[in-house]
């Protein structure tokens, strides 16, 4: 397959994966006892598949396109895409470490390790970003009463950090179920990496 055909195949595949990710983003659900606005979905899985087949930029594009679609189709309670930006960043923090670690350890154990590290990094860095940027932005745009630093830390430790760890674990379990069926097929797609997005 020539480079031109590879490019077309990659772009069509990214568009399809983005559409699937958008639909999965709509199929979300809260988990008690966390606040209702913290919801689990599995929309990062198509982005991870895109990254594994076409390179990390493809995964980033899927994350971007699904959030752009969701913002224009459903809007945002803040009027600006604070939640969508947070989702985009969290998705990248999950898929990129997973992609790079798996590329160094191409095995089922390697993928399991990569997913665990991806989940931990995503949860840890998102906690920091929530403390300094995301929660203050929500407070500002929704006109909520300002929280003290102590209140924000307690909110993150009791809610956001454990939620993101659970979300990462859930995505990892679902992806590993898919990977056990698709692992051989995914590894055969290396020819398409000749044209990385």
UniProtKB/TrEMBL annotation:
One of its GO terms (cellular component) is plasma membrane. GO terms for molecular function: riboflavin transmembrane transporter activity. The keyword Transmembrane applies. Pfam families: ECF_trnsprt. It is found in: Cell membrane. It is a multi-pass membrane protein. The chain crosses the membrane at residues 12-31, 43-62, 82-102, 114-135, 155-179. Keywords: Cell membrane, Membrane, Transmembrane, Transmembrane helix, Transport. Belongs to the prokaryotic riboflavin transporter (P-RFT) (TC 2.A.87) family. Probably a riboflavin-binding protein that interacts with the energy-coupling factor (ECF) ABC-transporter complex. This is Riboflavin transporter. It comes from Niallia endozanthoxylica. The lineage of its organism: Bacteria, Bacillati, Bacillota, Bacilli, Bacillales.
């Amino acid at each position: 397959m020539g480079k031109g055909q590879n490019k077309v195949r990659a772009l069509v595949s990214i568009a399809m994966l983005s559409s699937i990710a958008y639909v999965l983003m709509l199929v979300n659900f809260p988990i008690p006892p966390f606040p209702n606005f913290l919801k689990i979905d599995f929309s990062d899985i198509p982005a991870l598949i895109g990254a594994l087949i076409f390179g990390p930029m493809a995964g980033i594009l899927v994350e971007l396109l699904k959030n752009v679609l969701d913002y224009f189709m459903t809007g945002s309670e803040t009027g600006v895409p604070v939640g969508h930006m947070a989702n985009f960043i969290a998705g990248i923090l999950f898929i990129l470490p997973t992609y790079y670690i798996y590329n160094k350890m191409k095995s089922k154990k390697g993928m399991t390790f990569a997913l665990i590290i991806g989940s931990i990094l995503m949860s840890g860095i998102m906690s920091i970003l929530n403390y300094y940027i995301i929660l203050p932005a929500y407070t500002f745009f929704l006109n909520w009463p300002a929280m003290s630093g102590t209140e924000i830390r307690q909110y993150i430790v009791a809610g956001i950090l454990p939620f993101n760890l659970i979300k990462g674990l859930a995505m990892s379990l679902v992806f590993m179920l898919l990977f056990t069926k698709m692992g051989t097929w995914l590894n055969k797609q290396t020819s398409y990496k000749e044209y990385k997005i």
